[in-house]
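Task card 7
Instruction: Convert sequence to C-alpha cells.
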Amino acid sequence: QAQLVESGGGLVQPGGSLRLSCAASGFTLDYYAIGWSRQAPGKEREGVLCISSNFTIAYYADSVKGRLTISRDNAKNTVYLQMNNLKPEDTAVYYCAAASRRSCPPYSSYDRWGQGIQVTVAS
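Output:
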C-alpha cells in the first residue's frame, strides 16, 4: 500500500528549529515532486514549498523563504522539511504530498497525501 508518513513534529519555542520527515512506502519517490503544505487552526490549508525530482525547490508561500527549506534523500525514500527561526504563526498541521510528475505542480495537483503532523510554536 502506497503511503506517506510524516514525523518529527512537536512543540518548539519561537526562534527554534524542527526538521520534519516524510517517508514513503509502497512506491519510490525518485520520479515524484514532493511538497509540504500546512493548515493552521481556523484557516484553509496552504502550500508551503516543493522539491522536484531533480532537486529544484519552489516556494508556494513567500512568508517561509529564508526560514524553511526542503531536501530529499532518494536512497532513504524520504523528504525533509527543515524549519528554522520558527514563529507562532507557523503553528499548524503539516502535510507532505507527492505529485506524479517530475516538476513542482500547482498546489492543487498533488495526488498522494500523508496524514499530517502537528507543529506548535509557543513559549
